[in-house]
Amino acid sequence: MLERIAHRGESGAKIIERHGSTLGAVWSEPEAEPVPTGLQQQAAWDGSHPPLPQRSALERVRRPFALTAARRDGVFAARDPLGVCPLYYGQADDGALCFASEVKALLGVSENIQEFPPGAWYDSQRGFQTFFEVERQHELNADPGQIAAELRRLLAQAVSRRIRQDVVGCWLSGSLASCSLAALARPHVKELHTIAVGTPGTPDLEYAQQVASYLQTEHHEITVVLDEVLAPLPAVIWHLESFDVPLVRSSVARYLAAERASDYVETMLFDEGAEQLFAGPAQTQVSEPGTRADYAAETVESLHRAALQRVDRSASAHGVVAQV
Prior knowledge:
Blueprint: E1 12-18, E2 21-27, H1 37-42, E3 43-46, H2 55-58, E4 66-71, E5 74-79, E6 88-91, E7 97-100, E8 114-115, E9 120-123, E10 127-130, H3 144-162, E11 167-171, H4 176-185, E12 191-198, H5 203-215, E13 218-223, H6 226-230, H7 233-240, H8 245-261, E14 267-269, H9 274-277, H10 289-301, H11 307-316, E15 321-323
Helix pairs in contact: 7-8, 8-11
């Protein structure tokens, strides 16, 4: 099983046998913060700051994670609220419950592979339980200036929490979201590698170059023609584990960007989720504010099957850690 997802990390690997369970993990970067010895000896996880394997610890975590742990009372597993970190499970023929970061690791082990729900935890006694739900916000009564200031503070805080190294990469498509992300990240790093992918002459590449010059980043521009888009499709589909046309199409550029980033950085920032969270172009078609808020919440809840899956697989294919 572990060999099939070895591409997710080359910095280290471990196999743990404890309390009748076997856990395996690979990782792409050293832990930026100390992890309790007890957790290291009983758990495998995805993410930079895993919670303790207990229900009470989950709601305090502010960073993406997927966790499986072998406890004396059975297996415990959990996944972050939005499903940034992937997690799947299936039951083997002998009744054992198996978990993995990608479906391919469970092929041949289980005939009924399912996605572990975001914002949920599992233990052997109580089964699946939810600890997070996306809130519906229909109306804001605060002053627009106060809202803008608080939004900037929260975005800056979120970006700073994702940066744990002096040199990182950043997806820079030329969009408002990616340009804002690069601007928020720049003060926190010594060297920021921005990467843009597009066809020759596209205005987005020009916008990305303008922002990169202003922020004084190490900018990498990848221009592609049709054959260069088609060439990586088999690999993209294999890593993505999906034939969904829009998802595959939008993954190619990120796959190429992560490939280039892997020559320079271990971590890459992506702006995935911005359009859904802030009611981007597709959601402006919904006229009623209340309906729009519900629609925005629904799209955020489905991110783990689309945008978040796209960046995780595109980055991990090249051993790069995606941060969103």
